[in-house]
Amino acid sequence: MTNLNERLAERLRQIRVSRGWSLEALAEKSSVSRSTLSRIENAEVSPTAETLGSLSSAYQMSISQLLAPVETPFAPLVRSSEQSLWSDEANGFTRRIVSPPSGGL
Asked: 11-61, pLDDT tens digit by residue?
């Protein structure tokens, strides 16, 4: 699984490429330097809120539209009545499974 910066970098690159824009064209439309855009798209740096605002304006998208596909979905929770319990009575320890096993966690 990639980290958040890598997913965001890929998302931003996909949007730019899908519009047929070069880094230079996006730099002109967003007032963000070409080198900064390149570093963001290569996950070398994290964009600031101001930069995300400039990019969302250039793409005519809200920041939430820009970021929504990047967010990690919440893991489902197991109902209390269905949770497995393990107890270590010698140490007074009880462990409860609150989310199902997942390869992505």
From this structure: 999 999 999 999 999 999 999 999 999 999 999 999 999 999 999 999 999
SS3 content of the chain, % helix, strand, coil (to 5): 50, 10, 40
Parse the chain into domains and list their residue ranges.
Answer: 4-70
Residues whose CB falls within 8 Å of the CB of residue 105, separated by 6 or more in sequence, listed in order: 75, 99
- The CATH number assigned to the domain with range 4-70 reads 1.10.260.40
Quote the pTM value. 0.65
Give the integer Cα–Cα distance in Å for 103 and 1. Answer: 10
- Element at 41 (helix H, strand E): helix 34-41
